[in-house]
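Can anyone check this?
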Amino acid sequence: MCVQQRDIRAELDSIKEKHQTEISQWEKQKKSFEAEKSALKIRLELLETKEQALIVAEQNAENLTRKLVDLQKDLAQSEAKREFSFDELEKGKQQLNAEIRKGQRFREELATEKGTS
């Protein structure tokens, strides 16, 4: 029985050593996975930060686009008002010139009537 016990003990020691080696390998792999998990977590945080920055930039671009559209509308309205003002000014100028010519004709007629009387 001594030989058999030695063989069993040797086999148990061999199995124990094999399991210790496997445990050691699993622990190394676990540390490797944890390091990779940590690196991925950091990368995810960086990507989330970039995403937030892109969202803010997109919102700013949308706001600027809306502001540009509003400014273009304001400019178009201002140009329309200016054109209207120029048109009104031109009409007023034409009316004034007509009134001046009318006044000159009346003066000439009056002067002619005075001269003939």
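Reply from J.R.: I decoded it. Residues 10 and 102 are 135 Å apart (CA to CA).
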